[in-house]
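S.,

Sequence below, as promised.
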Amino acid sequence: MNNSNNSSTVLVAGATGYLGSEICRQLIAKNKTVKGLVRTTSDSNKVAYLKELGVETIEGDLRQKDSLENALHGVSAIISTVSSTLSRQEGDSIQTVDDEGQNNLIEAAISRGVSQFIYVSFCAMGDCPLQTAKRKVEKHLAESGLNYTILQPTYFMEVWLSPVLGFDYPNGKASIFGEGKNKISWIAIRDVASFAVDSLDNPAAKNRIIELGGPEALSPLEVVTIFEKAKGKKFELLFVPEEALKAQRNGVQDPLSESFSALTLGVVNGSEIDMSGILNDFQIRLTSVNDYANS
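The prediction came back faster than expected:
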């Protein structure tokens, strides 16, 4: 049974993040009633932005199960994008947030009688603590009795094709992990948000795990060529050997660094997602790397 309609309330967990705030924006654009889960320590500017959109912000913390009971009052559906990987605060870790925190939210959803749970996870990235946590949450959700959708997007182009991770397109420089020849179905954050929002009312999303990618698979070297054309300049490339990345992974001590190393090696190995079948069920126009490069 799908209880999602314009009068029902959707709670977005991770609402102040890049993906969460875009989900909130799209929900409001569809006249949904939206609650944004924020913490007392959340960035005040990001909270203000949510309020300007028309989101009702409510305080809660996935690490504190009791706080979630109040936050879920009157909520019929949850979209969770929470992760410790980008926005870390004191006490945040893969264990406390990505594992225990997400599982707390599922338990609170069951307790509160929430009818639908959409979880934004991640595609296969190799054996690491983050993937272990995400697969544990997926299993818990699939066995919870809730109407669920698990989205597994591949690499976000706005993150992995950005100066933060060595793709310094404003200055015409790019770090290439490995040989840069294996293809990845780079996906835009706004497209992942669109799949999450569409999953609320789309029967094809019910009780389903959906891998997500962009409209075409491109190697990092092919991406460089697209950006060179868009920016009108030749890029200076720095190749980081796969052996160096493996040594880095083997040398790290903390779970987050180990997981990031696994993600980077995932770029080396490639991540192709065939979207033809999915796009029969979801009417979403996917953003291309060319769109991103020329934006």
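Residues 84 and 92 are 6 Å apart (CA to CA).

Coffee later?
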